[in-house]
Amino acid sequence: MVYEAMLLFGVLFISDWIFSTLLQQRHALQMRHAGQVWLFVVLAAYFIWFWTHGGQTLAMKTWRIRLVTVQGEPVRLPRAAGRFLLSWLWLVPGFALAWAFQAKAWALLAIPAANVALWAASAWLDRNRQFLHDRIAGTRLISVDAVSVKG
Questions:
Q1: What sign does the CA torsion over 137, 74, 60, 85 have?
Q2: Residue 83 belongs to a domain
Q3: Residue 37's pLDDT is what?
Q4: Any idea what DSSP says for residue 62?
């Protein structure tokens, strides 16, 4: 996830620059929500495109991981979009709880961190060690044998 985040930093930086340049944004808070929606759409396009075209993002290629359906078939658009939305469950519930409890100081970090830890721990409950969002979406991550990688 850290490597993916490093790659996405560049993608989101350029996307935000394009947004602010084309719409002549003069202040960071001007059109803030529109910019957030734009970056969410860019993230969705990035992941859904790569998952439906080979099953691997750039970081997944490096780590030789591929996303497939439970049956081992390539992932199609609706399933990839569902998985993308479900993957936000890593973060959104923790931030929503922190907001609901008006968390301050350490709790503002601890609540979302606990959510991430619990979501990651959900893989231990699955007999195939798949994350909960993969199980719900009907997808799984597989290792790609170095010999079977072409080109």
A1: negative
A2: yes
A3: 95
A4: H
